[in-house]
Structure prediction request, 177 residues.
Amino acid sequence: MSSSPSLSRCVLRATRALMLTTGLVVSMASVAAADGNRDQAVQQAKAATARFRSLEQAKKAGYLAPRPGDCVASPLGAMGYHFENHALMRDGILDVRRPEVLLYERTSDGKFKLTGVEYFIEADQTTSAPILFGQTFDGPMGGHHPGMEEHYDLHAWLWKDNPRGTFAQWNPTVSCP
Prediction:
């Protein structure tokens, strides 16, 4: 007996939703249990991303360079250049040790310097705004470029001080050329 295509699609969607929800809950629970508090979680994230101060290491780990000129800024400050890891962006698992996006700014000599990270989850992968570091994600919001889905995100300025706070979206000390 074969199942109908629509029933198969429903079962696949339900299975995917359960896997994503379970993965998100397990990941968030394990991070909360392992970290105990925000400062420990920040230190854990910083230790896990230290190697990405090397742009070569970031590229080897699957973070893709943005299009030329794609430095994100606003009157409130800047985020800089977003190096996205599409595999992490699609897996639906949030973990302070595996940011989906790395944030860089260009130095006066034209090199990229790691300033922070961005945690990202597609809106259809969660039922509400996720929380990491005790911070609720911003969103849902539309994609920032063609091909990016509606999502939630959270910025963490791990490698450059932000006078507005570690988890503020915009950093007035970051600039775009």
